[in-house]
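Slide 14.
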Amino acid sequence: MTIKLFNTMTQKKEEFIPLDEKKVKFYVCGPTVYDYIHLGNARAFVVFDVLRRFLEYRGFEVTYVMNLTDIDDRIIDRSIADKINVEVITSRYIQAFLEDMDQLGVKRATIHPRATENIEEIIALIASLVEKDYAYSVDGNVFFEVSRFEKYGDLSGKKMSELRSGARVSVDEKKRSPLDFALWKSQKPGEPAWQSPWGAGRPGWHIECSAMSMKCLGESFDIHAGGVDLVFPHHENEIAQSECATDSKFARYWLHNGFLKIEGDKMSKSLGNFRTVRDALKQHSAAEIRLFFLQKHYRSPIDLTEAGLKAAASAAARLSGFYSKAKSRLDDGEDVATSEASGSDDVQSALAPFEKLKSELLDALDNDLNTPVAVARLFDMVRDANRLLAKDSLSAQEMDALRFVVTTLEELDAIFGIIDKADQGGSDKLVGNLVELLIDIRNDLRGKKEWAMADKVRDELASRGVVLEDKADSTTWRLR
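Slide 15: predicted structure.
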């Protein structure tokens, strides 16, 4: 097993070798909590959730850190616009974010650090940069001096000589160079602030992530990930300030997912195509959305279309339908053709095609998380296993092969999250509750010695595929 990941820093696939042999330290840039997250955000959170799960599947212990930026210009602007306290804004949207991620099937991070809970660490990090002469203060602001870091631009491929102030680099007359960026911002009237050696103010965005990631994972860690739009200036700035402060390599592997467009256009509120995760989940299940994302390689751009989502919905339904039918067939187990031979060669011949497909699937995931190929092989397995389901009876070897496919689906769905369990789960819960109610009624009838009615309940359930099994002190049931 060799896992390879495309490192943005080197622009090539590299064998993934963590600092600690069986432990992975993984940081993902989380949301700035001033609004509901949109589907562009969701793509990053889903694909890196899948990578995390796959690393765990491969036997690694993953410490997964996703920050929550709860102090930022956009948060303050929202607070002013809505005339609501900053803490109310951030609390509201942190809760909304966690709810949306839960609904989308994204595992909670090992740690969700908040910027406002790490002000002490942020100030200490800035102070060390000032002390080492990598940063300077002006009128209560502190700026990082980009020219002091020779490797600036290595991640993005940009050269300092070619960089110009513009939309992504704020212009400020207080700075020595337009490329220098804020580590600490002096307080403006009405803004939240903390005391620091440079006066009352608040941290800049970039320094927050450096301080939180290093606090949670150490000065050097394995993976730093986020959307491709974060490569410059955010991740470039993180590297500069972190490595200058520690004299150590910051993150060893830099991973970035591609852009998401909506029907060919950049997502924008002004275009009316801005889609939040919360709204999307009203029309599509989490499995459908996740499958849509995973059918495209994470580094490639993706165009979110209704046609694409409908296709993903259809595919997810086929997958869930097969899983439900196959589980039922295996649970029944009464149609095995016992007359056929049960030699090891027969077992191998029945299993071999499915084992090969599973091997190809895992190879694809090892190869820079190639989910399009992996998902395709999963559906190949389902297609071939459906031919088994079409038979009136199965040999013991064919049942073993079917069981292998179902087990594989369960293993891989723990990584992908694309078997739609919402409707199935809700239906199962309803069926279970109704069956348990009828069992209670039957037990009451038996207690009253009304055997005919009790038997009728049992027989009616049996005719509908629900088999009751009476034991000494209880009654259990199963679906045929």
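Speaker note: The chain has three domains: 4-283, 331-419, 423-479.
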